[in-house]
Amino acid sequence: MKFPTTNFDAGYPLYGAKFIKDDTVVVAGGGGEGKNGIPNKLTVLKVSPESGFDVVTEVTLSDNDDSPTAMDALGPNGTVLLGCNENSAKITSGEGNKHLRKFQCMTSKGEKCTLKHVDAVDLDHSKSIDDYTKLIELSPKGDLAAVVSSKENPSVLKLVDSKTLATRFEIESPQEIKDISVLPQGDSVCFLTPHGVNIVNTKTGKIVSTLSDITEYNLSKCKFIDNRTVLVASTFPRGRPGVVLLEVDISTGGNPRITKKQIICHKYQGITAMDLNNGNKIAALATNSNDLLLVNLVTYKIVETIAELHAFAVTKVTISPDGTSVVSVSAANTVHLVKIPTNFETLQTDNGKLLQYVLLFLLILAISVFLQRNNLGIQSTTSEYLDWFIARPSKQSPKVYDFAGPGEEMSIRYD
Fold first, then answer.
1. What pLDDT does 94 receive?
2. pLDDT for 303-322, tens place per residue?
3. Which of 65, 120, 232, 333 has its CA 20 to 30 A from that of 352?
4. Residue whose C-alpha is closest to residue 285's, from 247, 234, 323
5. What is the DSSP letter of 154?
6. Could you tell me the superkingdom of the organism this chain comes from (predicted)?
């Protein structure tokens, strides 16, 4: 494998993850109400491909709480928003359910990060224990949060002031909201339905543009690439395997349009998580088969597939701010770190490398036939050339990337 990997057992099922620094990630999850011996936690981890994972700090939630179901964070001295229901008896009795919780990640100079609980609110006012916080995303500036509950008919997107946790706007959708993404500038939010892309103005709370009736695909995940383009991960309907990436241009006002479609593979029937880093031109997608796909955002080709990264469903992926690390988490209690070379954008795809092998083989075959037919005094036969090709000490053998230290260049050697 060309990308170094390492993993960590958190001791509890994981449902949220977010990098707050290049080497620091926040994860969240748990076993649910009553714990059953499995805690509900919010944990800050320092990550390194060489030394693995170190727990910086963590918060253990009440034994009576349900498990955290969604989380987002800004750092290193920013806000952490956690979706976590209180106990079922309190919810069903109508006493309220402060399911959106705010923590502050605080780091003094020369000291480790600490998590401080700041506030909690009940946004949904539901008496059903089946309703939970499904999606949370903070704006890059940290002043706004987009929050979606699992409750449907209608599905509701709430725009929340991340300082006061007061609801600014509620936007209803007759269809299930599958995913959300906040524009880098923070003035728009994209929400995805099974067959539609919708853009909301965060200052007015109004839907300003919609691209609907995309019936040829099942839309799964969305992320803004820049201030005018949304990347949408989708699959084919009716169980047909295949993953398709769509670029949607929202700069055309009320008429967003698909500007690019790319089938990246003919496998998989679902995408469970996605993140991207436009600086390093990388997208990371988790599939229903627990595989991790690393995609070049320039060519929209899969550079690497890491198969069966986790034993159970991959619930979240997050890419470090510098684009050199990908962390995925799973309900199997595991955190997995994949180190990404800084030259990821220039790496060849698996198909590209295969094509090189085929072309080299055909070239050698053509040269050997030419030499024999023209009787140029070469005694080797075609089969001997082929034997040499198969047995040669190839420079096309798997590459190993040596990651450089400060001030050094990364080197590439061949095994």
1. 94
2. 999 999 999 999 999 999 99
3. 232
4. 234
5. T
6. Eukaryota
